[in-house]
Write a structure and sequence with these properties.
By secondary structure, this protein is of the alpha/beta class. It has a domain of about 160 residues: TIM Barrel, CATH 3.20.20.140. The longest helix has 18 residues.
Length: about 230
């Protein structure tokens, strides 16, 4: 079962993700437009089948205090993605168990944005570090080798600290979507083996969805309310 947990909110994109062979998708609003109307009938229809749709919330913050405030304001059932890049934001996101995914930790940097401290915290708090395929493919040809290097650095840290690693399309249009098998093949470019890539496209996103589905019924890790 494959999932794409970073797709812009569009019925066309959702339909294409399903056609390409995924079992679920996460569409998200930017936090500034969180209350935007969305076709709930589409979600209800799809979730009655074998294809799952979840909503996500992308959080942008200028400093750690602002990040903590926005996380606190979010609903418990939201899948939370923090847009990274700033080293302090990256570390704060990895230290917060309410965060599900740290997105683009390498954005605008000369390194991967994840150091040993952040990697250890991400493992402790089950914060997934994202490898975004759109970011790689849309980078300038002369800079693409740098992005590949960032992904290799993250993969090396993941193998050491065992934090969750997730691969997403980051798609804004249907032309930026790829089949799971094409993405798995692409990950060879930055050193992932087939087992690692499959896990990052299946088990990691499924674990995130299951954790969020617990929602307010989760008391502590490993416990829930049974009615």
């Amino acid at each position: 079962m494959f999932f794409d947990l970073h797709v812009h909110e569009s019925q066309e994109l959702v339909d294409e993700v399903e056609r390409l062979g995924y079992n679920g998708v996460l569409t998200f609003n930017h936090e500034e437009i969180k209350n935007k109307d969305y076709p709930d009938n589409l979600i209800s229809l799809k979730n009655d089948s074998s294809f799952q749709i979840r909503r996500g919330l992308m959080i942008y913050s200028k400093n750690t205090a602002d990040l903590k405030r926005k996380i606190q304001k979010s609903r418990n059932e939201d899948v939370l993605i923090v847009y990274g890049g700033d080293l302090k934001i990256n570390r704060s996101a990895c230290e917060n168990p309410r965060v599900d995914i740290i997105s683009h930790p390498y954005h605008g940097r000369r390194d991967c944005g994840i150091n040993h401290i952040s990697a250890r915290k991400a493992a402790e708090n089950e914060v997934a570090v994202e490898l975004n395929i759109r970011y790689l493919l849309r980078s300038r040809p002369q800079n693409r080798y740098k992005v590949l290097g960032y992904y290799r650095e993250i993969l090396k840290l993941q193998r050491k600290f065992e934090f969750p690693l997730i691969i997403t399309s980051g798609a804004h249009s249907i032309f930026e979507l790829h089949t799971p098998h094409d993405i798995i093949a692409l990950t060879n470019c930055f050193g992932m083996n087939e087992e690692e890539a499959s896990f990052a496209l299946s088990e990691t996103p499924r674990n995130i969805i299951e954790r969020r589905d617990l929602g307010s019924n989760a008391l502590v890790k490993g416990a829930r309310i049974i009615e």
